[in-house]
Specification:
327 residues, alpha/beta, 14 helices, 46% helix
Length: 327
Amino acid sequence: MTNLDLIKRLQDDKNNLFNEIEKIIIGQHKVIEHLFISLLCRGHVLLEGVPGLAKTLLIKTLSETMDLSFSRIQFTPDLMPSDITGTEIIEEDQTSGKRNFTFFKGPIFANIVLADEINRTPPKTQAALLESMQEHNVTAGGKSYALEQPFFVLATQNPIEQEGTYPLPEAQLDRFMFNILISYPSRNEEIKIVQSTTGTNTQNIKTVLTAKDLFNYQNLVRNVPIADNVIEYAVDFVNNTRINNDSKEKNIAANWLEWGAGPRATMYLILAAKAKAILDGRTTPEIDDVKDMLNPILRHRIIPNFNAEADGITRDNILEKLLNDSD
């Protein structure tokens, strides 16, 4: 099957996938698209929004549209690393009487892992999850156990009620491809939400994608050609977030940023632009595709300084200013 055939097939699968998800999730089309792009790029996602915006339901529904294993981990202050990765238990052989350690896999051994309220567990437990995200394996008793592929962590975080929480350090936030902010629904969307959730009608979700389909589309993203000027635009934009750059946007970074994004941001920008292009039925990405991916990929990779916080300047405000000055 040629790349053009795969792109056409992806169009059909994308439409079917979105239609199934939208049976349950009202609105949030852009969020759903970003989630799907992350799967195509083999990236992890951190969703952030106030309680009641269906973050958990969205991830669970997404998993039901694909023939992939799913597990949910509810993060709490007393959660231990072994509760995520698994643990070794002594078992006795009934015939020989010998005792041996047997490893029992934890909930991390699934294709899609929902890490619910990841900021409510201590750093040691967060690190166990984030190490698995990076290495795609778990080490216990000196042995390494490979995680199931494909493997995605979709984490949620509550931006309010910060008392008793453990915010992720910037180095660990960088492991997530996207930081997606979920906003309140519109008035019409909320009316539809109430109508669909307070009646007796139930919706059945059909499986649209298999693991093999997803692997094929992931390889397709890697094989999409891209022009040098698009790569240069992404590199230059990320460089403009660094206070030691020599561009005309240096003053913006120096005035409002303490730290900028690293090369991983640029790589994710290009991968996301490729995925966005083929989802739209195009064979190569454009600069506008990079621009569409700037905020969800960069907002958790830049650190505003005291001046920005004092002036009420958000990370998205800074990215918007950099975008306007770069055009």
